[in-house]
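Appendix B, example 12.
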Amino acid sequence: MTQKRGIVILIDEIDDTWLTLCKEAGLNVLGVHELASEKPNSVQKILDRLTEKPVRKQLARFEKAGIAVEYELHAVEWLLPRALFGTNPDLFRENGAGKRVPDGNCCVSNPLALEILSERARMLAKLLRQSGENFHFWMDDAEDAVCRCEKCSALSGADQNMLMMNAVAEGLASIDRNAKAAWLAYADALTVPRIKPRPSLFLEFAPMLRDHREPITSAGVQNTKYRELLPALLKIFSPADAHVLEYWLDNALFSHYQKPPAKLRFDPAVIEADTAFYRSLGINFITSFGSWLGEDYRALYGLPPAAEYGAALRKY
């Protein structure tokens, strides 16, 4: 099976320099992203940019070079429009104070909410016009964003995420029987769900809160938590389909989301150790966020270490 080696870049930072860097690094998947914390309704920001012919042509150049383009999106905010709250607040989650709020995800016990997620996932896929079969329509980018209504309160964050993503997968399957949808292990979904995934769901493992200075095999509390969670999740998801979404090149994170960007803290030894661990579990697809490494970063520090990143991924 061909190894999938990728990088996830903010849509405003994708350019010909990154095309050259990806080719030189031997990367074969480009993820397109937007920071939800920076742009409310980040999915709509992506869709708006995709109406621009130069942006579509730029992405087409990646695909022509053999680099698949996928969209990695915190999408529930778009899939369940917040404008519906005024007329149907029961679609939205109940917070710990017992109030319905439109600030993240949905009430997963409401059949209409899941139906809307499913229908608009189908709509979003058509608008993106993605050529590949892996769709990343994640939960909203927020912690403690579960529904605590009477029906949902017994469900873990992982199970609530599973219900949402099963609905997304159902919608995608209605337009493409080969479509696969991501279940993101992130935020409130960092335990093993009891609800089973649809066959077309794949695991996307995103260890954001790990200690990025040490290999994931190190003894620290956070790294141990993630290291033990991943094999447990692989008991219900196929390792062959699983994705790892790392943060090795996520310079927005390492700059604490404050510009100008800091110089990237890059340690190929950590990447090599992590990659060896992930490959030992049978995971074929490994990628990393590569945010805030665009023109402004290059003007300050030169080219980011894309070639070194690619070499570290290819070592195992």
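Residues 193 and 291 are 30 Å apart (CA to CA). The chain is about 35% helix and 15% strand.
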